[in-house]
Specification:
Blueprint (H helix, E strand, L loop, with lengths): L1 E5 L5 E6 L2 H4 L5 H14 L59 H17 L3 E4 L9 H11 L4 E4 L6 H7 L5 E4 L6 H6 L2 E5 H10 L2
Parallel strand pairs: 1-3, 3-6, 4-5, 4-6
Antiparallel strand pairs: 1-2
Helix pairs in contact: 2-3, 4-5
Length: about 210
């Protein structure tokens, strides 16, 4: 498929042919959903924890004699049945990450890119650079070209002025091409790829 190359100012500078095996696939929602679940599970801290009966400080003395009380037979005050006792089957510190084959992850990224291209949410810029880190000026430029929710993917490094100017603008994300991921692509309305990012992606999936 062919797409126009534009700029942050909205000017056009030719067009480029996108590879169909990366941007021309029929998007599969199941693959994209699996990848998003994988990403969100992997970034969970997993630091939630409760005290079980081994973590409670209480005397280990038997509460009362075994027989003759008419009550249940208890041997410890640390058990979950009692107020102040340990929690039974509560969460413990662990990793929530689960596996996903490398080929599936690569395919999911292709389908996310294809979904943006098919939905008209893909934009290609010649470069993503500004002269000064001015947030007000950048907001005006974004408003002029109709960008309010966008992920911008640059080459191996991002332009420092652009990153500084955009970091206080909601729903504007800027990443180097190494950081491109399915979750960030899907959660923004538009995806902007610079020419350098496009070349790096095509080389990556060659």
């Amino acid at each position: 498929m062919k797409i126009d190359i534009t700029s942050l100012e909205g000017s056009s500078s030719g067009s480029i042919e996108l590879k169909d095996d990366i941007f021309g696939l029929e998007p599969r929602e199941d693959l994209i959903a699996r990848m998003i679940r994988y990403q969100l599970a992997k970034r969970r801290a997993g630091t939630h924890a409760v005290k079980n009966r081994a973590d409670i400080w209480r005397t280990g003395k038997k509460m009362y004699k075994q027989k003759g009380t008419g009550g249940a037979r208890h041997g410890s005050a640390r058990v979950p049945q009692f107020r102040g006792g340990g929690r039974a089957f509560g969460p413990q510190v662990r990793s929530h990450a689960h596996g996903l084959p490398k080929k599936v992850r690569a395919l999911a990224l292709k389908h996310a890119l294809s979904a943006k291209a098919k939905g008209g949410g893909l934009i290609v810029w010649q470069s993503a650079e500004i002269d000064a880190p001015k947030t007000k000026d950048l907001k005006e430029k974004f408003a002029k070209i109709g960008l309010d929710s966008v992920l911008i993917i640059d080459g191996a490094t991002t332009n420092e002025n652009l990153s500084l100017a955009a970091r206080n603008i909601p729903k504007i994300d800027i990443l180097p091409v190494q950081g491109i991921n399915v979750y960030d692509i899907i959660r923004r309305d538009k995806l902007v790829l610079t020419k350098a990012a496009l070349d790096a992606l095509e080389a990556r999936f060659k």
